[in-house]
Design brief:
- The protein has 5 helices and 3 strands, in the order βααββααα.
- It is mainly α.
- The chain has a 3-stranded antiparallel sheet with strand order 1-3-2.
- A hairpin with a 5-residue loop joins strand 2 (35-36) and strand 3.
Length: 134
């Protein structure tokens, strides 16, 4: 994995998140920059960008910051490389499964909302399309 350090501007471009949003996630402890430059600038690595992308994907599905933190904690523990006791590993996997199920349900709800919105837009288009006189 690339261990190159990036400043917040590059991270913002890569994640399509505003600087303000990235700073907010830092303040809430969701994504803490891996390092600081000698001048005090935040420095991020690929793992930080990956965390921000998880958050970016969860937000439109209505997950709260606490839920984001819970999922990231579970995936951090699973990805740590440490040998987890079987019970703890299964608990983390159950948590991730729960988020996967919740995400799938929210995607289905959004598909329904999108279909209704498309029907509504089509109805409006029909209303605006002149009908030929008979």
């Amino acid at each position: 994995m690339d261990s190159r350090h990036m400043q917040i501007g590059e991270v913002s471009e890569r994640t399509e998140l505003s600087l303000r949003t990235i700073r907010h996630y830092e303040e809430t402890g969701l994504v803490v920059p891996s390092a600081r430059s000698q001048g005090g600038f935040r420095l991020y690595v690929e793992a930080d960008v990956a965390r921000l992308m998880v958050i970016r994907r969860m937000k439109p599905l209505g997950f709260t910051l606490d839920q984001m933190r819970e999922l990231l904690d579970a995936t951090d523990r699973l990805d740590s490389g440490d040998e987890l006791p079987a019970g703890e590993r299964e608990e983390c996997l159950d948590r991730v499964r729960g988020f996967e199920q919740a995400a799938a349900e929210r995607v289905a709800d959004l598909r329904t909302q999108l279909a209704r919105a498309e029907e509504f837009a089509a109805t409006l288009r029909e209303r605006l399309t002149p009908t030929p006189a008979t």
